[in-house]
């Protein structure tokens, strides 16, 4: 499979990250969006009239949406249905809900990052407020999930493509002026993802060392601090 890719776009990173976790090799074709604007050239628009990245060429079709590419990779290459729980209607619906939230993060945190990195025109303060609203919601969800023994966005023992979709925008949020420090449960969740085997790197994103099994999930102080924060948002 061929991925039309740009190394600095979170949406492209999501596809590379999931393919690495699945052990699927992709051929990469770099498209220079800035300053080259190759995504607006006739040759690329013939592949994707929307002029957006990534595009995944499966050999049978061009997938022009990054979330569709995640669904495709999980459905085709994960026989265990770990990443896309198709046999469990409730969990599958929950994955879809979080994919919708990932789309909102793309238009808020993602837009803020493009504003700060390449000067894309947007209402930057509004984008940052929207991103913080989503992070506060995610923080509450993850914090209460941890209390119930769940490590991931969708209840269950394993992460899903929902975790991948949110992760790529959350982990790069500070490049758009959106701090992660106020969200301890979100930060712990990103660390869990970064400890997964075959975690793929991106500029500014690195794997985490193995967790010391002797360390408890949350100290009493951390629990109290997270509880107080959740109560205020």
TrEMBL record:
<dbReference type="InterPro" id="IPR010987">
    <property type="entry name" value="Glutathione-S-Trfase_C-like"/>
</dbReference>
<dbReference type="InterPro" id="IPR040079">
    <property type="entry name" value="Glutathione_S-Trfase"/>
</dbReference>
<dbReference type="InterPro" id="IPR036282">
    <property type="entry name" value="Glutathione-S-Trfase_C_sf"/>
</dbReference>
<dbReference type="InterPro" id="IPR036249">
    <property type="entry name" value="Thioredoxin-like_sf"/>
</dbReference>
<dbReference type="Pfam" id="PF13417">
    <property type="entry name" value="GST_N_3"/>
</dbReference>
<comment type="subunit">
    <text>Homodimer.</text>
</comment>
<protein>
    <submittedName>
        <fullName>Glutathione S-transferase</fullName>
        <ecNumber>2.5.1.18</ecNumber>
    </submittedName>
</protein>
<dbReference type="InterPro" id="IPR004045">
    <property type="entry name" value="Glutathione_S-Trfase_N"/>
</dbReference>
<feature type="domain" description="GST N-terminal">
    <location>
        <begin position="1"/>
        <end position="81"/>
    </location>
</feature>
<dbReference type="GO" id="GO:0006749">
    <property type="term" value="P:glutathione metabolic process"/>
</dbReference>
<feature type="domain" description="GST C-terminal">
    <location>
        <begin position="88"/>
        <end position="211"/>
    </location>
</feature>
<keyword id="KW-0808">Transferase</keyword>
<dbReference type="GO" id="GO:0004364">
    <property type="term" value="F:glutathione transferase activity"/>
</dbReference>
